[in-house]
Structure formats: structure tokens, C-alpha cells
Amino acid sequence: MNCEPCASSLRSASQSSILVCAVNCCVSVVSTCLYYSELHHLHQYPFFSAQLNTAIGALLAGLWLLWLPKDVEVETAATVVPWQSWAWLSALLAFQNSLEILSIPRVMAGFLPSLWVSGLQHVSLAWVAIFLLSRIPQAAANVAAESWAENQKGITWPLRATLYTQLLGLPCNFLAALTVSFFWKGEAAVVLQDYAGGFSCLTEGQGACAGAWRSVLLFAVPGMLYTLTEFQVLQAAEGDHKESDRKSIRNGNG
Predict the structure, then answer these.
(1) At what angle do helices 212-253 and 15-42 cross, to 10 degrees?
(2) pLDDT band at 22 (very low <50, low <70, confident <90, very high)
């Protein structure tokens, strides 16, 4: 989790955009800390953890949308994003997430202690490379989502974007996990074992799994808000770009 979308938009940002970026970065820090707390309990079941967080994120975004007044904002032909586009965005995010959750425990458990004790000789550069490669689909997803945010205003679009990408992310996460597991372990059955083990970890709550539910619930709201504010940052950036273009046109005509 990161503040990458903010970095590209601060140069020409309005005060509201800077505020959105600041909120996104704060949420990112909090959600990252809570995610590592969840990972402490579910580190052996990263694919299950991803599916659980995605399902909870979709539920929270959907409940928030239901709570909003029905006449707050209405989608028009100019603001509707095709479902195929949402599916493509969800696939990119799912692939990024699968690579990230697979590499994070190995990078953080290997890189930081090894760097502190004996330098880089015990660090798996392959896992570091996989972690860095996970940023590529994230960047592509940001570019795609920003182009769709052109005619969007208010809170409804980021909420819909969160809901749609989380719902479509459930099957996309599964397919991405199958693909990653096949190349990682040579078999796709690892994913089903991961899901079964993660479910048992939550329901039994023994050993390292003790308190797993608490960490999942603590991460739930910040995790959903992180996705929401990511879309808000892209929405604000696109609004600033349009305003900058309008000013340039007016100055040119003047």
C-alpha cells in the first residue's frame, strides 16, 4: 500500500486535491500497519486473506452506497463505465495484489532482518524483484481508472469503483492466485489448500491464529477506505488536469 497516485498529481494540485492526497497517505499508513498485524496471523494463507479482505471491502462499500440518498448523483451516458472495463481493472488489481501478498512476507521477513544482521547476502533477490514487478499492473490500473474519472464528481463514483472492483476482484483474485501458484509451486491446488487452511485458522483460532478475527476486523474499514481514497485521488487529479486545460485555453484566447 502506498501513496503513488498522489506523487504524480501534486505538482498541479488544488487545495482539495492536496487534502485528498493527505488523507490517502494517512489511511495508507494506518491500513498498512493493520494489514501486517493481520498478516502476522494469516501469513501462511495469503490468498485466503486477500479474498476475505476483498469480500469485506465490497460489503462495506455496498452498505455505504445504500446509506447514501438515492438522488445524490445519477449516472449518465457520459459517466457510465462499461462492465468490461471494470473487469479489466479488477484483473489488473488482482494480479498486482497476488504478487504483492505472496512476496511481502518473504521480503519483509527476509530483507529487513538480514539487512540489520549481516547485510544483503541472505536476501532473496527473486522475491524482491517480484515485489517490485507487482507495481507494474498497479500503475496500469491507475492510468486506466484516471481516464474514467474524467466526468465523475462527488463520493458516489469512488464508492461504486470500490464496490465494483472488489466484487469483480473475487473471481479475478482466484484466477490470479491459480496462475501465480502454478508458476510458484507447479500446481494450482495450493490455492484451495490456502483457502481451507485460512478458514480453519479463523474458525479455530489456535496458536498463531489466535486473535486472527480481531486483526481482520481492525483492518476492514481502513482497508476499504484505502481503496476508496485511491479512487478519490485519481478523481481529484483528473479534475485538476481539466481545470488546468481550461485555464490554458482561456489564457490562449486572451
Answers:
(1) 160
(2) very high
CA 252 vs CA 240, 241, 244: distances in Å = 18, 16, 12
Q: Tell me how far the alpha carbon of residue 5 is from its chain's centroid.
A: 12
Measure Cα distances from 129 to 47, 140, 183 in Å. 20, 18, 15
Show the DSSP H helices in the chain as ranges. 4-7, 15-42, 46-67, 83-118, 125-133, 135-148, 156-185, 189-204, 212-253
- Amino acid, single-letter form, for residue 191: V
Provide the mean pLDDT of the chain.
81
Which residue is it, cell 478519490? 232
Q: Where does residue 140 rank: exposed (0-12), middle (13-18), buried (19+ CB within 10 A)?
A: middle
Neighbouring residues of 164: CB distance < 8 A, sequence distance ≥ 6 = 83, 86, 90
Q: What is the pLDDT of residues 172-222, one digit of tens each?
A: 999 999 988 888 777 888 899 999 999 999 999 888 899 999 999 999 999
**Counting Cβ atoms within 10 Å, is residue 248 exposed (0-12), middle (13-18) or buried (19+)?**
exposed
Q: How far apart are CA 64 and CA 60, in angstroms?
A: 6
